[in-house]
Here is the input.
Amino acid sequence: MLTLQLDEFMVELKDGAIKNVGASNKAATTKLYDVESVDVREFGDEQVKLAFADDEGNEVEIALFPDQASEVARGIEMLEDEGDVFE
Here is the structure.
């Protein structure tokens, strides 16, 4: 299941084209639940890409710099050591 919340979002649909309307102060939050597949790969020369997909075809991709990816890995290791999630 994918949820998408868009703030201050308005578009114009004209002749099959979508155009931004209003100020450029838009923000979005996306959440993907019930992930079925995870892929980790190089992205360009400097980043790591994490790709998550559910069984409904929804997908979220996140590009991280190596220090950010290492921080995610450390956080998961901490959960493994301290939490009940990985039992």
In short: The mean pLDDT is 93. The CA atoms of residues 4 and 76 lie 25 Å apart. The chain has one domain: 2-82.
